[in-house]
Amino acid sequence: MKKIAIRDSEYEPKKSRILRTKRMTATEKLFEIALPGGKSLDHEPGQFVEVSVFGVGEAPISVSSSPTKRGSFELCIRKVGRVTEALHRLEAGDDVGIRGPFGKGFSVRILEGNDLLFVAGGLGIVPLRSLINYVIDNRRDFGTVNILLGCKTPKDMLFNEEVDEWNKRLDVKLNCTVDKADPAWKGNVGLITSLIPGINLDPDRTFGVVVGPPIMYRFVIKELLAKKIPERQILVSLERHMKCGLGKCGHCQIENLYCCQDGPVFTYDKIKNLKGAL
Ligand SMILES: Cc1cc2nc3c(=O)[nH]c(=O)nc-3n(C[C@H](O)[C@H](O)[C@H](O)COP(=O)(O)OP(=O)(O)OC[C@H]3O[C@@H](n4cnc5c(N)ncnc54)[C@H](O)[C@@H]3O)c2cc1C
Ligand code: FES
User: How large is the C-alpha radius of gyration of the chain?
Assistant: First the structure.
């Protein structure tokens, strides 16, 4: 019988090596991973991969590093259940399965030449870091850059050293806020929405890029619309219980959209009338 060779199938996890891990908080761990042969992932910021722990299962995880980093890529994973707990037990030298990258990310070509306002709540910094570092590595292609970061407490803040580097740059404006401060905290205290009215922006040439917990979107979008940013210039990344990542299983469906293929990044005008999208 004739054998059919399946090469680079999007159904087949590629056995990939963990090069480095870093514990970031009590619940988040960073993994640097190399595909077989050091091949680049060639992702777009905002895309995700399906990561598998052999014998345990698979989970969708956003790529956190910029495509400008070649030869390996980074994932920041919160420990919440079976697969993510198994991932947290892995260290440098261990193997994982990788499928993807999947989905539509932040189209950098559309953002080029425009001003950017990034709004990241909690784990939202993970996919946004990919785009922020892409923009910083290609800084002359973009207008003004404002970054707003929010999390529950200072100890939940991710990528502290990198955020400090962004903050030192003269061509980036950065503001952090926490819901509850500790005595060492020098930033703002309060919801991330409270930072938006104080931002000076030109709505015609500003893209608002928002990633965070579901509860955050409605309130942040309301503030961006109050700043007169057009709906098609507000980008959000939606998280659903994805399984296949390929538009087959229907787990991620919102009305006629498959979040895994049509998203996870959408412009607000495309999803504002979809029931349960936000
Ligand atoms: C596009 C996308 C990007 C993501 N990026 C990241 C990331 O960068 N870092 C990160 O830590 N997490 C990310 N997640 C969430 C991550 O996929 C889930 O936390 C993970 O699948 C949980 O699997 P588990 O077996 O550990 O947990 P389970 O034991 O299955 O469940 C624990 C909790 O996780 C939730 N959950 C389970 N399966 C999924 C799923 N497929 N999608 C979303 N939530 C789920 C459940 O509601 C439950 O509350 C992303 C999810 C999506 C859809
Ligand atoms: S995750 Fe299966 S259809 Fe989207």
Answer: 19
